[in-house]
Amino acid sequence: MISTFFNHELKAFWRSKNTGKTIAVKVVMGILILILLLYVVALGVLLDVILGKAFPKDDLVVTFCGIILIYFLSDMLMRMQLQELPTLKVQPYLHLPVKRNSVVGYLALTAILSFFNLWPIVLFGPFIIKIILPSSGALVAGAFFVALVSLSVFNNYLAMYIKRKSNLNGWVFLVAFAVLGLAIAGDFVWHVYSLRKLSYGYFGALLTKPYLALLPLVLGLGMFYFNFIYLKGNLYLEELGSRKASAYKSSTEIPFLNRYGSVGDLVANEVKLILRNKRSRSALLMSSFMLFYGLIFYTQKVYPDGFKIFLGMFMTGIFIISYGQFMFSWQASHFDGLLVSKIKFSDFLKAKYLLFTVVSTIAFLLTLPYAYFGWKVVLIHFVMYLWNLGVNTTIVLFFANRNYKRIDLSKGASFNWEGVGATQMLLSFPLLILPYLIYWPFSLLGMPYPGYAALAIIGLAFIGTRSFWIKKLEADFYDKRFKIAEGFRNI
């Protein structure tokens, strides 16, 4: 039966009207993956040399055993962001005499076909053969291979489970990502424990007790079975609907939004969209990573004060830029429904403004610890926070009216350029240049603080006249709505 499913998938691929485009993308991706694989092979062959130079005072095998756990934590982070979920259109099989175990088994087994499962063998295999096999024997070397493959399988199915759960509740993904981040920060930032010692505690024991390789084997098989049971229990669409609706409370039922009426409801739906889809969720994650940019640049004195304007704008407003430029593209699959709905477009715009205000405010508050580098940094961040809420939000929404490319939310975020076009390139010019056109004249005269004041005043002026800009954007949208809808229909 699995071969039948595979045959149906191949036929669906070749009969699709986007086959040519898909093949071109897969060829490019295949070349990139092959190049990456060659780099990993070279790294694996030279791993003993690299570890010897990086840790000259430590025993080579001890060093090797100490990095394996760190690798698998990093592997989990990459899987959560980059690895795709295996898919199968289940509906055509539901009325046929096809066993549920066959459908679920196909989905579960195809998840193994991931390049992530190949990396640990390619990366660590040469070291095991060159160093561990001659010194400890074939039994120990085999135990290492079993442990590595089993942990890779465990990571594979754990990432699959987290992603599937996050499709129902986006907070699951954020919590899992935060837990992994804290686990890594506990060693490398706070030094509460040593991941290298924990890693050696297990993999070092394999050198004398090879039977311990059964532990990750049991974990890998257990996670595979757990994933199988979860898929089997959620195979039918109705089981993902009414039965779970009564037991699950939406993560976007935020009391703060109730006071805004229909605008608050639109924001709540937007939050659901962001948390439940990979591409939109990646925009939120990128905004979180941008908050650490200051640690890279503020620790170096070679960058002038003018560069801090750029940093302040991006750290407090990257979500506005990365998410807002695709304002309609996120709703491309149901845009025609929005056009005929009773939703006022002015409310739609107000919801966008409210969402950007909340996210940008949280981002600004999270950058307050940069006061460690001087209160001037906080001042610049606050100025650019006002600039983002007033000017950049309006510019981004203006250009969003000119983006006619759809985004398929069912696709992954990695190497996905759907919705990206010339509009995004044109958008970068006013966003990057405009604040400096206002600041530089004051800076050249040796008056940076009046320059900051000018940026803040303009930002506040745009915030104060927001209702005026909403009317302008609404009128602009009605002029272009049918052109936008036509662009979204071109799949």
UniProtKB/TrEMBL annotation:
- TM stretches of this protein: 23-47, 59-82, 103-133, 139-159, 171-193, 213-231, 283-303, 309-332, 353-372, 378-400, 420-439, 451-470
The record's annotation in Pfam families points to:
DUF5687
* Superkingdom of origin: Bacteria
Record bears the keyword Transmembrane helix? yes
Write out the entry's keywords from A to Z: Membrane, Transmembrane, Transmembrane helix
Protein name (Swiss-Prot/TrEMBL): Uncharacterized protein
Query: To which species is this protein native?
Result: Mucilaginibacter psychrotolerans
